[in-house]
Amino acid sequence: MKIAVITGVLAAVLITTARPGAAQATAAADPHAGHAREAVAAAAAGAVQTGAAHLPPAEEQAKARLNASPRHGEYADIALAGGSKLRAWVSYPERKDKAPVVLVIHEIFGLSDWIRSVADQLAADGYIAIAPDLLTGKGPNGGGTEAFASRDDVVAGVRGLTPDEVVSKLDAVRAYGVALPAANGKTATVGYCWGGSTSFMYATKQAGLNAAVVYYGGSPADLSTLAGIKAPVLGLYGENDARVNATIDGAKAEMGKLGKVFEPHIYPGAGHGFLRAQSGQGGANLKATEQAWPTMLAFFKKHL
Question: What tens digit of pLDDT does each residue of 163-201 get?
């Protein structure tokens, strides 16, 4: 498989706390939580490498990157059917012409500072990035991700979302984005882990998408749904992620039969969640990040 290589690495130190027992319980309760263990392992290791300024930060540097960003970012309330609102983070690029819109679909950990920092990096790369909190209204007292008491509770909340409500919410976010005065009418999705699976699934439902990117998310289990895809799909995976990677070949074969574009890349030695846990897998996650991000940007440039 063809993989682009980008050089340039900065070093940083990860300072975090973790409760191993809680992490193990989370992993046992939900397979998507496996990449949380990499963050715990990185904390134990001490010294951490992170991506360069032209890449999204690792989770540990997300808040600092957001605080230092020169770009405009803001929360927006997006109208849903029935009169309710969906909270989303919107990052705007600094450019004089209109820009494509990228919907950033969060992990099973909800709308986090890290997801917002990914949106900010997409804005740095020239895109209007909208990261919706799909847990809006699902938390205590009608709150979203921030209202849940623990990460385990957030995971449970995301797992409780139905495909139909997710599609309905993403449709509203896409419509909001297209209507922005600074938008050029073209749209794409990118998602991570649960969000990666959702990005692929949403492409089967939304014919208006111009591109869809899947970061280490499973392909649709029902391959017959792939017939609904109009957009080209890019998949970015870590080699050490057998659970997810087992879904690649079937989707690739079916997409080929249908004459549709599905371009998977598997990065040697990288694990699940490599873009967020850049210190994991003995440096392989960082290398995967350095390769996957520009591969995605080239894909967006071609199709948006």
Answer: 999 999 999 999 999 999 999 999 999 999 999 999 999
What whole-number distance in Å separates Cα of residue 31 and Cα of residue 193? 10
CA distance 107 to 95: 29
Alpha carbon distances (Å) from 41 to 174, 200, 280: 37, 29, 8
In angstroms, the CA 188 to CA 209 distance is 6
For the chain, the straight-line distance linking the first and the last C-alpha, in angstroms and rounded, comes to 23
CB 105 within 8 A of CB 189: yes
Q: Is the CA virtual torsion 51, 54, 59, 61 positive or negative? A: positive
Q: Is 84 helix (H, G, I), strand (E, B) or coil?
A: coil
CA–CA distance, 116 with 66 (Å, rounded to integer): 8
Mean pLDDT for the stretch of residues 93-97: 97
C-alpha gyration radius of the chain: 18
| Spatial CB neighbours of 51, under 8 Å, sequence gap ≥ 6 | 9, 10, 57, 58, 278, 286, 289, 290, 293
Angle at 154 between CA 151 and CA 157, to 5 degrees: 155
Confidence of residue 53 (pLDDT cuts 50, 70, 90): confident
